[in-house]
C-alpha cells in the first residue's frame, strides 16, 4: 500500500485530520487505497460521503489520466485508514437493496 503525498491532509477537508485514527504516538495512521472511481458521475464524491456516513473517514486523492473539462478522465483514488480498509471494502461490496415502485 502506497501512502499518498504528504500534503494530502492539507488538500482534504479541514476536519479530516481530527476524524482520522491516530497511532499510539498520536500521529495519523497510514492511509490505504480503497478504490479508483470516476469523477464524471460524482461516484467518488458519493463513495466518500457514504463511507463518512458509516463512520469511516475517507478522502479522494490524485487525478489519474489526462484532465478533461476539469475531471480526471481515468478516475481518482479513494483512501481510508489502513485499519478500516477491510470494513470499507465490505461496505462497497455489499449488495444493494432495490425497491419496487409499489414500495415507494
Numbering strands along the chain, what is their spatial order in the largest sheet?
A: 1-5-2
Secondary-structure-derived class: alpha+beta
Count helical runs.
4
The counted number of beta strands is: 5
**Strand count, sense and closure of the main sheet?**
3 strands, antiparallel
Measured by DSSP, the beta-strand proportion falls in 15-25%
Q: Give the low-confidence spans.
A: none
Overall geometric form: globular
Proportion in helices: 25-40%
C-alpha Rg (nearest Å) = 15 Å
Arithmetic mean of pLDDT: 78
Secondary-structure element pattern, one letter each = HHEHEEEEH
End-to-end separation? 42 Å
As for the number of domains, it is 1
Describe the structure concisely for a colleague:
The chain has helices spanning 8-11, 16-19, 43-53, 85-93; strands at residues 31-37, 59-61, 67-68, 71-72, 76-81. It has 104 residues and is an alpha+beta fold.
Overview of this structure, please?
The protein has 104 residues and is α+β, with helices and mostly antiparallel strands. The protein has one domain. The chain is built from 4 helices and 5 strands, in the order ααβαββββα. It has helices at residues 8-11, 16-19, 43-53, 85-93; strands spanning 31-37, 59-61, 67-68, 71-72, 76-81. The strands form 2 sheets. The chain has a 3-stranded antiparallel beta sheet with strand order 1-5-2. It starts with 7 loop residues before the first helix and ends in an 11-residue tail after the last helix. Pfam families: DUF2007 (PF09413). It comes from Oscillibacter valericigenes. This is DUF2007 domain-containing protein. Residues 46-93 form the DUF2007 domain.
